Amino acid sequence: MKGWRFTLQAPSYIALMTYLDDAAIRERVYRAHSTRATAGGHDNRQIIGRILQLRRERATLLGFANFADLVLEDRMAHSGKHAQQFLAELKDRTEAQFVAENEDLAAFRRTNEGQNASALEPWDVGYYAEKQRQALYDFDEEALRPYFPLERVVAGLFETVQRLYGIRVAEQAGAPVWHPDVKTYGIYDQDGTLLGAFYADWYPRETKRGGAWMDAFITGLPAKEGFKPHLGLMCGNLTPPVDGRPALLTHRDVQTIFHEFGHLLHHCLSRVEVRGLAGTSVAWDFVELPSQIMENWCWEREALDLFARHFETGEAIPDELFQKMKRARNFRSANAQMRQLGFGFIDLGLHIDYAPAEDGDVMQYARRILQEFSPAPLPPDHAMIAGFTHLFASPVGYGAGYYSYKWAEVLDADAFTRFRESGIFSREVGLEFREKILARGDSEDPAELYRSFMGRDPDLNALLERSGLLSATSA
Ligand SMILES: [Zn+2]
Question: One of 95, 260, 288, 295 is an active-site residue; which one?
Answer without folding.
Answer: 260
